[in-house]
Amino acid sequence: MPAAPGRQTVEIEGHRLSLSHLERVLFPATGQTKAHVLHYYARIAPAMLPHITGRPASFVRAPEGAAGESWIAKNPPPGAPDWVPRATVRHREGTSRQVVIDSVAALVAMVNLGAYEVHVPQWTAAAGRDAHDRVVLDLDPGPGTDLVVCCRVAERLRQLLDEDGLTAFPVVSGSKGLHLYAPIHPAPGRSVSAYAKGLATRLMNEHPGLVVVSMAKLERRGKVLIDWSQNASAKTTAAPYTVRVRGEREGVAAPVTWDEVGSCREPGDLGFGLEDVVGRVGELGDLLGPVAGDAVRGSLP
Question: Where in the numbering of this chain does the DNA ligase D polymerase domain appear (predicted)?
Fold first, then answer.
């Protein structure tokens, strides 16, 4: 029987998946469809999986694409295959079962269900919330600032992290700002959050006219927010290589080099689409690869 329009059955890693609504335009400005996004994730998975495997995932679901309704979902999307692994996660309200993406097939299955944006915490389900293995700092430009200013702040944060024996790796968020990852030996979430907050506060005190650590919108005008709170055990960060669905043009959370951060003079200098990121990984490899290993892991001071 021929496939219905916009539908295709594929086999990935021994699992049969019925991909649907392939013709749906998700990003009107570029004409990127669901088929384009699925193809991107299938190709980028080898670089992406080391940064999300073992971590309970939550998603930004946007079945109709960037122009439609979107929401954050921690529970597995309706229709998630039984073979996709789940982990039990404890919350203040109780416990929940969350998807753990451990394969190309699982990643494609979730994206096929409209879970286009993947977010993960800084700890794995196996190690638990008291074993965070990375520090994350989210640099978010307030009104009147942009990614270029975030890059200048990031360079100073890199120096401070280096002084503390930690190695920072930059990732453009795919939205407006920049993420910094620093791999660490496992430490309790409260300790990691306290360290990140202290680092952000230190830079705010150094540059009060440029940096803010408060979420209050009135305080953020003309400044860069260093969001340290994503180190809390209950919080998540947009995963490296995830597609972002916050505008009519697709964005990707893409690792970049410090040379690229230093030479950024326009926000567009570090803006990447789907094919850009696949091409970069083919040429440069996974720039964030060391974060998933032990070679550059440091200890909190």
Answer: 33-287
